[in-house]
Amino acid sequence: MTSPIHVAVGVVRNPQGQILIARRPLHTHLGGLWEFPGGKLEAGENAERALARELAEEIGIRVLTCRPLIKLRHSYPERQVLLDVWRVDAFDGAPHGRENQPVAWVSPDELGNYAFPDGNRPIVAAVRLPDRYAILGAQPPADAPAALERLERLAASGIVLAQLRAHGLDEADYRRLAQPLLRRAEALGLRLLLNAAPELAQELGAAGVHLNSTRLMALRQRPLPAGLWVAASCHDAEQLAQAQAIGADFAVLSPVQTTASHPEAKPLGWRRYAELVDGAGLPVYALGGLTPADIATAQRHGGQGIAAIRAFLA
């Protein structure tokens, strides 16, 4: 098997939060599809240097600030690629198609309206996802007022994505708890996923479903349409591979460090976390004994950010 083509990719973001995309020329591989600008590494280049060169050549900007976003491997019938994706938050120059390719600034949520190569789907997810994913826990008996109060606090702290986890509730009690929380989350602009059966999440109008590892391993295909989030709880390489195989949008990998909720579980540590994330093929949050101060550490190790139960309510 030949080595994959190593490509540096730039997710260029302007001060308004829009993302720059470019359309591939019709005569090229995957012509006519939209993409994030970038190109192949040359001999002796690292990804960051190649990114700076390619963005200068393709869209006429000088990169000032960037950081790794996600690394992906993808196989097309005719080639394999390793996409080394970087987020560019500061640059000099006015981006334009120096090779006469059309370019457009679009909001992250508008990216789904454009046709991208298959290998770019996890990049689109990573662009749209925040760096914090909250876990809103509830134990029996279901206390809706307390859960609503925690939801309000999460939204006030800047959380925009969360899941409702209440393993001790039966389906009827979970449904009663979820309904007012979903209504309030929508009003707050917070996307709430249900840690429950996918059918229930879709029926109640949730932003998506969060699959526990048991549900994840029982599936053979993506359980919800593309417009809804599908997330998965993972603890090892096999579960991460399953999440990728069914088309999950992102995963949560745990425990990274010792956690109060599962003190008996052996932590992965950051080194093993990075090894697992490197081959995951989708955005991965770190979970377990972490606080917002660990977001940059998670990102340095290839993660999307962190997930937490208590840390965002402190």
Structure description:
GO terms for molecular function: 8-oxo-7,8-dihydrodeoxyguanosine triphosphate pyrophosphatase activity; 8-oxo-7,8-dihydroguanosine triphosphate pyrophosphatase activity; 8-oxo-dGDP phosphatase activity; 8-oxo-GDP phosphatase activity; metal ion binding. Its cofactor is Mg(2+). This protein is α/β, with parallel strands linked by helices and 314 residues long. The chain folds into two domains: 119 residues, Nucleoside Triphosphate Pyrophosphohydrolase (Alpha-Beta Complex), CATH 3.90.79; 182 residues, Aldolase class I (TIM Barrel, Alpha-Beta Barrel), CATH 3.20.20.70. The protein is built from nine helices and 15 strands.
Which helices and strands occur, and which strands form pairs?
Layout: E1 5-12, E2 19-23, E3 34-35, E4 38-40, H1 47-59, E5 62-76, E6 79-92, E7 103-106, H2 121-128, E8 132-137, H3 144-156, E9 161-165, H4 171-188, E10 191-194, H5 198-203, E11 208-211, H6 213-218, E12 229-234, H7 237-245, E13 250-253, H8 269-278, E14 284-287, H9 295-300, E15 305-308
Parallel strand pairs: 1-6, 8-9, 8-15, 9-10, 10-11, 11-12, 12-13, 13-14, 14-15
Antiparallel strand pairs: 1-4, 2-3, 2-7, 5-6
Helix pairs in contact: 3-4
